[in-house]
Amino acid sequence: MQRQEVLEESRYKNPVNSIILLSDGQDTYTAFSQNNRSSVSNYDCLLPPSILHPVGRAIPIHTFGFGSDHDSLAMHRIAEASGGTFSFIEDTSSIQNAFAQCIGGLLSVVAQETHVTLESANRRVKIRGIKSGSYGSRVENGGLNSSIDVGDLYADEQRSFLLFVNVPRSGIEGPTKLIKVNVTYKDAATGSVVELGEQEVSIQRPETVTEYQICIEVERETVRVQAMEDMVVARAAAEQGEMTEAGRILVQR
């Protein structure tokens, strides 16, 4: 029986399933890059199509890099491409705790196939973009509709996303309707689909603004996203051997 069939059949007994990968060595698979005529690691080719482009729910790969000799870049890319996590294990004494934390997290999954839909509550309000990290998101219909594919959620877990909207000028004092939000998910215990119901988000529009106040929660998330984006750019520069440029990007942020 092939690996994918084993995973698919196991869902009849337990819908929450994953792959755990432990490695202490270097990736020996390389592919030729026509762009820079150099041999570079092609990490997508390491994963079967059923993992990269699943027909049903994606199966995450949780990778563990053991010791100082493991290929952290390969392990991180495999986890990222499959929606899993990457952990570093320094020595053998840490293996048991690392695996226990991972399995404990899988056992606490309460929601699957979580999907967030957002709709403009005012046709003049346009959704400009979403910062959702590795979670898939879309903005459609000229900015009137958008959605986020969140996937699995653990007990007491919270996910934050930044939504950028263009709000029109208003000469009328009072609330302005912005966004309608709805969330659907599959209950991991019962397998039934749950819809939380549509909620509307509005803001107050005073005639004059006397004091400009920053929302600390939004500001914190904005800074976090900007830092993560710079880390991705810096890592790409470091992979090309441009260590000075990578350092400059991080120092500037």
TrEMBL record:
Q: Which InterPro entries match?
A: CLCR (IPR051266), vWFA_dom_sf (IPR036465)
Highest taxon of source = Eukaryota
Name this polypeptide is given? von Willebrand factor type A domain-containing protein
Give the originating organism: Carex littledalei
